[in-house]
Amino acid sequence: MTVATAYDALLLDLDGTIWEGGRAIPGAVEAVSACGLPAMYVTNNASKAPKVVANQLTALGLAATADAVMTSAQAAVLMAQQCCEPGATVLVLGTTSFQELAREAGFTVTTTADDRPVAVLHGHNPETGWAELSEAALAIRGGATYLASNLDSTLPMERGLHVGNGSMVAAVVNATGVSPRSAGKPEPEMFHLAAEKLQAQRPLAVGDRLDTDIAGGIAAGMDTLQVITGVSGHRDILNAPPAQRATMIAEDMTALFAAADTLRPGPQGGFHAELSGTTLTVSGGAEDSTSIQAFRAALSAAWAAQDTLVDEIVAVGDVAKQAVAQWR
């Protein structure tokens, strides 16, 4: 049974999974289009409206509408509706699209603490600077509830990892001593909402980042597929805590057509892995064995250990050395 036939829907991350800085990750668009599963794009990036995200996906060749996009900005507005009265004044620290979502939900939107907002909604905006962060801090010190769309410390872009919303939130936390409630991943709510919209009974959460995509899917009680095309690399995954260990591990989205059982951590490809202390030794393999097979074998050894982190990786034999050399 392939991954595409084992599940009834895909809950897909965007940055680092489908695209990187707006550029499609090789194989991702083709795999999602060909697998035949309904998809919901679940993203922590709150800077763009769902329609804009859908248009970007369509430009890449994916059949996507605004209804197929679930952003952390949408989740943050839903969270605000749970704790604020209808029509209440909220300070939205984010893009125009985030402000519009709040207005559509019935809130009065402001950008100044002088209006005594009852809540601060903080989402990613490349234009955010000292003045905007200060208004948020003033409002929070004045008693406003602090809600963040997400707490991602970095944002994957074509040139590398840029400053994410979580890093901007950290400035406000440092200034106020108040930590926000986060609406985005790794909280499970976005995954539940996305699955409900698709009426999915057995969805698969797919992403590249351990502490958001994978942790969120696991928190939502779903199977997860980790792709190694974005933030979290092989060494990060080896040392992932139990709450961030994906059901399946793959190099990229083309794994949707692989047998699901072959993607699970465990001995494969003729590789053998053993953890002694903090040293992981990988050996064996055959001429046609792959680096990802070696990695899954290594994961089975690393994840079996209790409270032990891999500090050193030793490859024994030419095949194992070539395989491990491709890890990052």
Quick take:
This protein is of the alpha/beta class.
* CATH superfamily (homologous) name of the largest domain: HAD superfamily/HAD-like
From the spread of the alpha carbons, the general shape counts as: globular
Which CATH class of the largest domain is shown?
Answer: Alpha Beta
Radius of gyration: 21 Å
Mean model confidence by pLDDT: 96
Sequence of secondary-structure elements: HEEEHEHEHEHEEHEEEHEHEHEHEEEHEH
- From the 3D coordinates, which CATH architecture of the largest domain would you assign? 3-Layer(aba) Sandwich
- Sequence stretches where pLDDT stays below 50 over 5 or more residues: none
CATH topology of the largest domain: Rossmann fold
Domain count: the total is: 3
Q: End-to-end distance, in Å?
A: 30 Å
What amount of the residues lies in strands?
Answer: 15-25%
What features would you describe in this structure?
The structure is a single chain. The chain is built from twelve helices and 18 strands. The protein is an alpha/beta fold and 328 residues long. It has three domains: 3-44 and 186-261, HAD superfamily/HAD-like (Rossmann fold, 3-Layer(aba) Sandwich), CATH 3.40.50.1000; 76-182, HAD superfamily/HAD-like (Rossmann fold), CATH 3.40.50.1000; 265-325, GMP Synthetase, Chain A, domain 3, CATH 3.30.300. The strands form five sheets. Strands 5-4-1-13-14-15 form a six-stranded parallel sheet, sandwiched between helices. Strand 17 (279-284), helix 11 (291-304) and strand 18 form a beta-alpha-beta unit. Helix 6 packs across helix 7 and helix 11 (291-304) crosses helix 12 (318-324).
